[in-house]
Design a protein that fits this description.
249 residues, 9 helices, alpha/beta, 7-stranded parallel beta sheet
Length: 249
């Protein structure tokens, strides 16, 4: 018996990296998972590993977000959880640039996926959650909103936006029994991060934490499961900072 038995979860950006770990963690606790990703092959692979289903989504497209909801209902008959994880991270916005040197097109692309995408996916699910008077939404933000990491102004700004959006949604959906919370991960040593960042930089970051080690994707899964489960039934509008003690709030 898992703490999420009978629940259906959608994880955007679930076809690789940290998102795939969320999918596996939710499935291990009994949830049926829709792996939603613009990378169809990756989504199918993760879904096959966990006994879930997959769908292609461009989160920045309203029709695509709505289709994700419709497909999930067709496959599973219900939806209980949305993990807004899909995002453009630093692999697509390198090299670092001062805030006033970021091309307008690059700024708009990051905002389109990270902010608009989170809003559109939540917007597509809101009528269903209101109707069933239950639901869980988790926005994946970033610890960079606390540190103001240089060179990634668009990424940091986008992650601050989804943090703020979660607070508004928590208030607007609270009367319907819908819980909305935010997770702010520290720099997490996913496969992508290990490819992009020098090992010495990751080691130095580890020394800046209370727990002096690298952060790994599995370090985030427990918080996600907790916030999706009935154990957090009276928690909404909150920010859960999971970074091994790099920032105190």
């Amino acid at each position: 018996m898992g703490v999420l038995d009978g629940k259906v979860a959608i994880v955007t950006g679930g076809g690789r990296g940290i998102g795939s770990r969320y999918c596996r963690g939710l499935a291990a606790e009994g949830a049926r998972v829709m792996v939603a990703d613009i990378n169809e092959a990756g989504a199918r692979q993760v879904a096959s590993e966990i006994g879930g289903s997959s769908t292609r989504i461009d989160v920045a497209n309203s029709d695509s977000a709505q289709a994700m909801v419709s497909t999930t209902l067709d496959v599973f008959g219900r939806i209980d959880i949305l993990i807004n994880n899909a995002a453009i991270f630093t692999e697509l916005i390198q090299p670092r640039k001062a805030f006033d040197e970021i091309p307008v097109e690059e700024w708009d692309r990051v905002m389109g996926v990270n902010v608009r995408g989170t809003w559109l996916c939540s917007r597509a699910l809101a009528p269903l959650f209101r109707k069933q008077r239950s639901g869980v939404i988790i926005n994946i933000s970033s610890g960079t909103i606390f540190s103001g990491t240089e060179g990634f102004a668009h990424y940091v700004t986008s992650k601050a936006a989804v943090w703020g959006l979660a607070r508004v949604m928590a208030r607007e959906l609270g009367e319907y029994g819908v819980r909305v919370n935010t997770i702010t991960p520290g720099l997490t040593s996913s496969e992508m991060v290990q490819e992009l960042y020098p090992a010495e930089m990751l080691a130095a970051r580890a020394q800046s934490r209370v727990f002096r080690r690298e952060q790994y994707p599995d370090d985030l899964v427990g918080t996600v499961v907790f916030l999706c489960s009935d154990a957090s039934a009276f928690i909404t509008g909150q920010t859960f900072n999971v970074d091994g003690g790099a920032h105190f709030h």
